[in-house]
Amino acid sequence: LDMARTLTASRALQRLRSSSSAVKNKLRRQTLYQKEKLNRNKEKKERKKKRNEEAKKMGDQAPPKEVPKTLENTRVAEETTVDPEDLETLQDEKTDEMASYFDRLTAPKVLIISITKTSLKTNIFIRELSLCIPNSEVRLRRNVPLKKLIPEAMKRSFTDVLVVNEDRKQPNGLLHIHLPNGPTAHFKLTNFRRGYDIKGHGRVTSHQPEVVLNNFCTRVGHTVARMFAALFPHDPQFQGRRVVTFHNQRDFIFFRHHRYIFRSSKKVGLQELGPRFTLKLRSLQKGTFDSKYGDYIWLHKRKEMDTSRKRFHL
Prior knowledge:
By secondary structure, this protein is an alpha+beta fold. Helices cover 32% and strands 25% of the residues. The chain has eight helices and eleven strands. Strands 1, 2, 3, 4, 5, 6, 7, 8, 9, 10 and 11 form an eleven-stranded mixed beta sheet that branches. Helix 5 links the parallel strand 1 (110-114) and strand 2. It is globular and about 70 Å long.
């Protein structure tokens, strides 16, 4: 019995020594980790090869291929997920703040505001954003408070106000205010890349673009998507072949601007026009901007909300 215990202890000790995490020397630990990784990959390939051989032998009776697990297909079910064709959702759309746009009672007119002294990169971002959104105007804020600026924008028939913020000479925030009754969305802005820096980029034309909104599933996401849609004209000019895409993936909203090109009667390609950037929703507020007394529909609280990597809010 004592001999058996000694053997078991020695085997456990050998496993511990072979494990890369137990080795204190950094170079040896890295070498062991690479060996473990190669062995795991080799075993994985062998299992895959064995499955393929069995599937060939079984023919039509072979079991279906396993679907790989991702954060998207294993996401935690969100209570506020909506169905666009649901009667309750359709009724809400008829009475929300963007209903006048979708009923074609108002045409979009967008005001893009910057601070008084902006950096070169922020100026480039504002200029390229104004080229993406037809019927938009760029104005300097001149240190005027937003509460005073919003009534002036309403008098001049603007339907939306976009406020670009910067930090350390980089654009880092976007405030989207829908007029006249809100809502107001605040986004963190990252990964900006101008069109000139994109390989094979094209020139932006004056045609009105198509708008593609992907993967906005929840009630908050649905509202944000409708706000984005209300920035663009109702009738796209298809001869321009311009497409603006807002793609939501894991609560990050990726902005892309393309032109599709007919290479032949069967093949279609995409040419990116730029810019490209990423948005992350920080808050959604009822009404127009009011940082002190505003009523928040949704507010991102990291410690309370980001409890699982599989939980998404848009």
